[in-house]
Design a protein that fits this description.
2 copies of one chain form a homodimer.
Chain A: E1 2-6, H1 11-22, E2 26-33, H2 40-51, E3 58-60, H3 62-66, H4 98-112, E4 117-119, H5 135-145, E5 154-156, H6 164-174, H7 196-207
Parallel strand pairs in A: 1-2, 1-4, 2-3, 4-5
Helix pairs in contact in A: 1-6, 6-7
Chain lengths: 217, 217
């Protein structure tokens, strides 16, 4: 299986990269820059690809991101909210239709490069806040991607029913170097510990009974 | 219905724009630049929007287009083929996954602007060459777009079972100024008359029993 992983450099997609390699996939990767506040995640992803001698093309969707106002990720007028993911204010972090855009662009890159599958790190913890992480949405995109080219393109989402804790547990077994991942929305020298992404990451390590190496640096 | 039309400035999407207006939709428009050889279609679309006092935002996907080699639309190393659409060499004009990318990006723009529908000019004549114009693909995208946000986003494709001749027939009744549309892949001062797009356009006008005003200029 020649599989293109949507690799953001965060915890989920980096674990996915290692997981699919461990299953014997011929793994390539691509990233997406949509005007997010910082590129620390992408830098982390580039390090991962470098380690395995593969390219890390980054699709620049900044122009589209700049057209999407009203969310904290691509609209600098909207502050990054603090608090738990489930809270109402976390809806401010939702970039409209982000996953469909990423899956569509990844599909294009995959077809142009002769891949027969794309993979992304959708997981159970995202369902409550991101409509485009719901299993029903993922299934429809799977069916659409199977028809978007004359050769069916598979969509792999092995973590879709996993919690972030499950992902970290599996990643520790696989030896994922979590010090080479980035999650915090704020993008400072150290994780802020206050944004939804930081809180969720801390919960994932707690669930897995592990310590986040990024906090030990 | 607040509807965002994917308006390329060609025959199909311009007719769609007029058609939905005639049905009472509150129509807005967006274009896509993916590094195609010329911007004459987009210029034509801008004229149409100007006429009705609406904006014509163009989503710049040139960076993604540049990553997709092997097709005549975004890879300058591949020449524009001559001949009929059904011919094998016309496959060179297929930009991988183009329609999914456009629908996904249009969905993002539509959600950010409070639209409840997006529309595009898929029609029966495209099915044989473009996998992502097939009714089955369109239906899956319709189902995915209905789930990509908490509020369902509708996908309208009223021409999906129409021929290009049917589209021109309807457009003439609606008074579509076809001299303000552009179809030719080559982008010269006048249509080349040799590329698949020109041949198909000529057939459409012939089917509708009409003369293409672009050829009378």
């Amino acid at each position: 299986m020649k599989t293109l992983v949507i690799l953001s450099g965060g915890l989920d997609s980096t674990t996915l990269f290692y997981y699919l390699r461990s299953l014997g996939h011929d793994v390539s990767a691509a990233g997406f820059y949509y005007g997010q506040r910082h590129r620390k995640e992408l830098d982390a992803a580039a390090l991962t690809c470098d380690k395995f001698g593969i390219a890390y093309p980054i699709v620049n969707l900044k122009h589209l991101g700049g057209m999407l106002k009203g969310n904290s990720q691509t609209d600098k007028a909207v502050a990054v909210p603090h608090g738990h993911y489930e809270a109402e204010n976390m809806k401010l972090t939702v970039v409209p239709n982000r996953n469909m855009v990423m899956l569509a662009a990844a599909g294009a890159v995959a077809i142009a490069n002769g891949c027969n599958a794309i993979a992304y790190g959708a997981h159970a913890g995202d369902h409550a806040i991101y409509p485009d992480c719901r299993p029903a949405f993922v299934q429809k995109m799977r069916e659409a991607l199977a028809l978007c080219d004359w050769n069916p393109l598979q969509l792999l989402t092995p973590f879709v029913a996993w919690t972030k804790g499950d992902i970290v547990k599996a990643g520790i077994v696989l030896g994922v170097p979590y010090e080479q991942t980035w999650t915090c929305y704020a993008g400072g020298t150290n994780p802020c510990g206050l944004c939804g992404a930081c809180i969720e990451r801390a919960e994932a390590f707690a669930c897995a009974g592990a310590v986040d190496p990024l906090l030990q640096k």
